Amino acid sequence: MSRWPFFLVSALVLLPLILIAGISGWLLWNSGNWFWLSWTMSLSWTAAWLVYRLQGRVEIPLPNVGSKIHWTPRDQAAAALIEVEQQRIHEFTGVQLADPQFYTTRTIELATEFARHYHPNSTDPLGSASVVELLTAIQLVAEDLEILLQQNVPGSHLMTVSQWKMLAQAPAWWRNASNLGWLASVVFNPTSLARYAVSRAFITPLSQQLQTNLLGTFYALFVRQLGFYLIELNSGRLRGGSAAYRASMKKLDPDQPTRTDETPVAPTPPVTVTIAVIGQVKAGKSSLINCLLGEQQAAVDVLPLTRAVQRYDLKLDDQSDRLILLDTPGYSDSEATPAQLADTFEAVRNADLVLMVLDVRSPAKQADLKTLEKLAAWFREQHRFKPPTIVGVVSKIDGLSPVMEWSPPYQWESPNRPKEHSIRAALDFTRQTFGDQFSSIVPVCSDIDHGRVWGIEEYLLPTVTLLLDEARACSLVRSLHRDYDREKTRQIVSQLISAGARIKELAPDFLKTQLELATKAILKRTFSK
Q1: Cα gap 102→286, rounded to integer Å
Q2: Virtual torsion, Cα 367, 373, 379, 380, nearest 10 deg
Q3: 371 pLDDT higher than 60
Q4: Whole-model pTM above 0.85?
Q5: What is the rounded distance in angstroms from the CA atom of residue 23 to the CA atom of residue 362?
Q6: pLDDT in tens, 417-460
Q7: Share of the chain above pLDDT 90, in %
Q8: 242-252 and 131-152 helices, crossing angle to 10°
């Protein structure tokens, strides 16, 4: 779009405001109140400058950028680079922030910084990214900024690059126009010199800072978008391209913004969330699973994960996602075989949520701590995957003193009865032993044979429901990597077949052309002799 329609639209929008301001000013001048009201304007601007100085910056709230629930610990650490860059906004001038080349340079520098965070020992950290991943990141940033500008900035679709650069000159234009206005005012009323001094002292720096804030807000938003997708890039989640990534993130966050011209996305299919139940042998896993399943004790109609690990469908009210419950054989140094231990670890590595069952009557927690340490070490090496949330399930609480007492419900958060104090002490001991390795700790009793079932519906299922969003994030990230690994070989074969077909199609014409050129060359050489 050329300049004149933009200025015409702007003039038509501003014309009524200019007329109202002019007529109002003329009426005020004739009424004799202009002098006092003009001081009101200067004093208000001075107050605005003081507020700005006290606040340090007048920040414009930024919209959320994507879901971060699927981020790994390394991704969370990389987010600090975004905050560091946003803190540098005050170092850049309005001219820099309005220059498109500035954004190109900072994009390359930030991409290198993020790559170095993920590959600290590489001499060329950015070189490990594929071309498709880089193009995907650029496309996603551009699409998000397009959506945000079109939905939140009126007339943004009319603004050209030249007009964007003109924002850097706005304070100078305002200053020149203001000086002309004050000059005319002083000619008619010399007492306006005082108000002119106030304007020069407060309004000019305020207008410059507001302009920098406006451009700085856009840059802060740009950094957030760019940093977000650089994290996704370095974590390998962009390897399948923008379409596959958008589809996965749409399952994770159905409310994310979309372009107004984008075709509505069909409802996403349910996500399969895997919940692994682990614990020492005879910790109470089987009885807990029976309570969770109720009458649903038929195995899922798929092959079991291993001979020792059983899979079941778990149905929760108001949940459309498919929940798979893994019943593991248990672990301990004395009773579990190496194969059973391997099966347990494999189940957890493929789980999106883990329930670690702890026998409240057994003080031996070393095997549990060792298991958690091994799992944490494995996930530290697997930067692509988000570690599953782990819930500590303290079982067999009916065995706490007084043993003969069983009269639930128990208000263990604010204990009054002896059993409630025992439950509270047991959970405090568990929390001290495991620290922050558990996101939550819940007490349960699952002795179906003796009719002692409590804590499942009261605490465990609500906790699982609250953590399903985290579990869905783990599942989606895992499926994103799995789908890419499955498709990459197939895609290469497909590309080779297509290239071969194209070569076969072009080969006759190519050979014919080469033959004609060779024939002409031979004839030319023959007749020239």
Answers
A1: 61
A2: -170
A3: yes
A4: no
A5: 87
A6: 999 999 999 999 999 999 999 999 999 999 988 889 999 999 99
A7: 20
A8: 50
Q: Which amino acid is at 196?
A: Y
CB of 136 within 8 A of CB of 245? yes
CA dihedral angle for residue 289, residue 290, residue 295, residue 299, rounded to 10 degrees = 50
DSSP code of 417? S
**Residue scoring higher pLDDT (202 or 478):** 478
User: What is the model's pLDDT at position 477?
Assistant: 81
- Is the distance from CB of 391 to CB of 354 less than 8 angstroms? yes
> pLDDT tens digit string along 132-190?
888 888 888 888 888 877 776 666 666 666 655 555 555 454 455 455 444 445 444 55
Pairwise CA distance, residues 413 & 360, whole Å: 17
Burial class, 108, CB count within 10 angstroms (exposed 0-12 / middle 13-18 / buried 19+): exposed
Cα separation, 229 vs 240, in Å, equals 14
- For residue 99, pLDDT over 90 is answered with no
Identify the sign of the CA torsion 330, 332, 337, 339: positive
Q: What DSSP assignment string belongs to 190-220?
A: TTHHHHHHHIIIIIHHHHHHHHHHHHHHHHH
Would you list the domain boundaries of the chain? 33-252, 272-477
Q: Count how many Cα atoms sit within 13 Å of the Cα of residue 371 in the half-sphere of its side chain.
A: 29
pLDDT at 428: 94
Q: What is each CA distance from 117 to 111, 231, 237, 442, in whole angstroms? A: 10, 10, 16, 37
Cβ neighbour number for residue 155 with a 10 Å cutoff: 11
Tell me which amino acid residue 347 is.
A
Fold observed for domain 272-477: Rossmann fold (3.40.50)
Sign of CA dihedral 425, 430, 433, 437: negative
Distance CA(275)–CA(110), nearest Å, equals 38
